[in-house]
Amino acid sequence: MPAEDTVLRKAVASRPRQGLIKDIQRTNFERVLGNAAQFSIVTIGIVVAFVAVREAQVVLAPLFLAVTVGLMFGPVADMLEQRGVPEALSAGVVVLLFIVIIVVGGALFYGPLSEWAARIPTVWERIQSELANWKEPIAAIGALQEQVKGVLGGGDKMEVRVEDGSTVTGIAMLAPAILAQIGVFLVSLYFFLATRDSIRIATLSLCVSRRMRWRTAHVFRDVEQKVSKYLLTISMVNLGVGAVVTLMTWAVGLPSPLLWGAMAAVLNYIPFIGQAFMALVLFLVGLGTTGELFGGLLPMALYFGINFIEGNFVTPNLLGRTMTINPFMIFLSLTFWIWAWGPVGGLIAVPSLLVLYSIVTHILPTRTVAPRKLRRLVAQKASRDADAAEPKAAPPEPAKTPRRKQERAPKPASAT
Prior knowledge:
Shape: globular
Order of helices and strands: HHHHHHHHHHHHHHH
Radius of gyration: 34 Å
Structural class: mainly alpha
Strand content: under 5%
């Protein structure tokens, strides 16, 4: 028998594999063509997905925003549920709380904005008078541009046509779509908060093994933990930035300092673009209020200083190293989502990147280690979710004991 096994092994080893034969028979051109075809299919799929995301903005944008806000207010709903409040009622309370915050913020913005709307003509006149001092540099730039056009042969004039359109008509046409998106957002937010545990358990029940359920539960809990921590921390930081900007604008003498502080707090949710827009607003307000260039540069420079301290010292120390993301990745995510969904995309750019980062870190090994307390908390919640999603086996039926036949006692012999 050992000799036969040795002969069989040699025969199998000498026989080339079928996949190796096919690989040898293929030429380099066929390999390159096959790889190019696979790459083309993947590229086409990514492009189609991007276009689908952009075209489905009306439905997907409020849904994604509702999930993001739901992850932010998830700890509030959990706190209410731990005190015995039903899930449906706690979700309704959180939605009402969010509506109250938006209404109060809008009411605080309305007064200063209406006041500045009346001041716009005066401010614009002051800005024009300041720009009149820059006519000579602008004229020199225009002359240089004409010279460049003459050298390059671009003598054609550009025609600009302004079509007359009614703003009221445009708003009336957009109002139903905006109201529909608001309704989709509020309904999605309520149902996400009310059924997020059921969604998690139902997803985990689809996993075939306990290890897969445990890892998926870790992803769910890690995503919820990171997104809620990020949004709550950023909200506190933005409130602090708003308070500091309010004091700064009051100190430099700008009118309506509460308005600029509130605007700075809201725009700070959108990285890079929000800060740039806020700096431009402070420059124009300072220039229009004082009528001097220094009056516009001073609040802008102070705001950049506040933003530098917040972005490099305050936020990293509060969030920790485990929440640190490459700024270039944040910029790419921000660019894509603003291109796809506009301002709403800017709000969900960083949370969506955190979700992707959590999924990747659970698939690929990384060296970043979370704090021990946080790891223990996530592991306990993940194990509890995995146990809840594990299918329950039916109780075993009790074993049937065979009935013993009762032995009949022998009849006593009758006395004869």
